[in-house]
């Protein structure tokens, strides 16, 4: 079950980085949802490689095909099959590295677990697998909008390396604002500094990490389960399952530890006929259950592990080698991770909404 996510809105992904295709089976999506490839493709376009000079030059159109689960443009309530062909795979780029576990990759751990590993591109551990998540997440997001109306899930790059954007006003933030520059940071001045830093790392055959912030607005109070399936716990699991993610915090996060309770408590106020909170240090979740405020969280993404610089390491037989990685990789994966984070958030929220509806 390691490739399946969700309780009622379930997604199983398949495919390897340099195989024939990647895809997903979406099981549990309610019937009568209007759905065609055109509903899914925009998010895949935002994730795909080769978008600009800041991304890997691997050229994939990432065109999705719906194989099953719909008829005449609506869902049937049966499993939805999704497929995206790999057209620019180059397994030969990895031939010289077959006997050398790459630093900070999953080559060694996959070999220890399964006794075999994909010979090229990391196989299932590659970020190529996230194509499937984005496609499935687009379906979840469309269902959420049909179910709850004016909802939005917007992620953006909040830091790259040591460059941090000022606090962004979550109210009214749109994907169009996020996509206004190559690095997907809504603050234009900070974005230019981030772009320069990524270009410098790329030219030096190195990589950079950073943080992403995600804001989920328009969702009702009551989503999430007490104790082990708290909404923030499910979001954390989802985000930490994304390749290269090393940290998760919600609301005030670690910064909240520097505050006193008198500062940190979210006082209740009346908002348009409902209870709301004056501040949102809780990040929209209290006791593991959504309170109707925006769900706000951040994730930390490490620098891309594959770099062009020579690295001293050892081969599987233990003898020292110098590894100069080949292949095509992002100097900073954060801009392309934005739709992946949005997709995983949508999957968590859709599943939580269905669980609330059916009390599962």
Description:
The chain has 360 residues and is α+β, with helices and mostly antiparallel strands. It has a single domain (4-358), classed as Chorismate synthase, AroC fold (4-Layer Sandwich). 27% of the residues lie in helices and 23% in strands. It has helices at residues 37-47, 107-114, 130-148, 175-178, 188-203, 231-240, 261-264, 334-358, and strands spanning 4-5, 10-15, 21-27, 64-68, 70-71, 74-75, 80-85, 152-160, 163-164, 210-217, 245-250, 268-271, 274-277, 285-286, 289-290, 295-301, 311-314, 320-323. Strand 8 (152-160) and strand 9 (163-164) form a beta hairpin. Helix 3 (130-148) packs across helix 8. The mean pLDDT is 93.
**Can you say what the CATH homologous superfamily is?**
Chorismate synthase AroC
Shape: globular
How many helices does DSSP assign?
A: 8
> What is the N-to-C order of secondary-structure elements (H for helix, E for strand)?
EEEHEEEEHHEEHHEHEHEEEEEEEH
Please indicate the count of domains: 1
CATH topology description: Chorismate synthase, AroC fold
**Helix and strand composition category:** alpha+beta
Which value, in Å, is the CA radius of gyration?
21 Å
Descriptive key words:
360 residues; alpha+beta; Chorismate synthase, AroC fold; five-stranded antiparallel sheet; 18 strands; 27% helix
């Amino acid at each position: 079950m390691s490739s399946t996510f969700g309780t009622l809105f379930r997604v199983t992904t398949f495919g390897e980085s340099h195989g024939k295709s990647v895809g997903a089976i979406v099981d549990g999506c309610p019937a009568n949802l209007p759905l065609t490839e055109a509903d899914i493709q925009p998010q895949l376009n935002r994730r795909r490689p080769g978008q600009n000079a800041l991304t890997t030059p691997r050229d994939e159109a990432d065109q999705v095909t719906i194989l099953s689960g719909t008829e005449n443009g609506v869902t049937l309530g049966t499993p939805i099959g999704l497929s995206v062909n790999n057209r620019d795979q180059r397994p030969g780029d990895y031939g010289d590295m077959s006997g050398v576990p790459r630093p900070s990759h999953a080559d060694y751990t996959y070999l220890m677990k399964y006794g075999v590993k994909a010979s090229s591109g990391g196989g299932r551990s590659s970020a190529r697998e996230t194509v499937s998540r984005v496609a499935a997440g687009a379906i979840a997001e469309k269902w959420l909008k049909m179910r709850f109306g004016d909802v939005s899930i917007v992620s953006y790059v909040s830091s790259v390396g040591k460059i941090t954007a000022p606090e962004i006003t979550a109210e009214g933030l749109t994907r169009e604002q996020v996509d206004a520059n190559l690095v997907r940071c809504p603050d234009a001045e900070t974005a230019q500094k981030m772009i320069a830093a990524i270009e410098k790392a790329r030219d030096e055959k190195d990589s950079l990490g950073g943080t992403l912030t995600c804001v989920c607005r328009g969702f009702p109070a009551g989503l999430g389960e007490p104790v082990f399936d708290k909404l923030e716990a499910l979001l954390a699991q989802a985000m930490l399952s994304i390749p290269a993610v090393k940290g998760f915090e919600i609301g005030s996060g670690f910064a909240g530890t520097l505050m006193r309770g008198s500062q940190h408590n979210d006082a209740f106020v009346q908002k348009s006929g409902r209870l709301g909170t004056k501040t949102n240090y809780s990040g929209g979740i209290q006791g593991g259950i959504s309170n109707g405020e925006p769900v706000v969280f951040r994730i930390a993404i490490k620098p891309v592990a594959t770099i062009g610089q020579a690295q001293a390491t050892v081969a599987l037989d233990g003898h020292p080698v110098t590894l100069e990685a080949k292949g095509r990789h992002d100097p900073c994966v954060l801009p392309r991770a934005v739709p992946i984070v949005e997709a995983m958030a949508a999957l968590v929220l859709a599943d939580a909404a269905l669980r609330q509806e059916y009390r599962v």
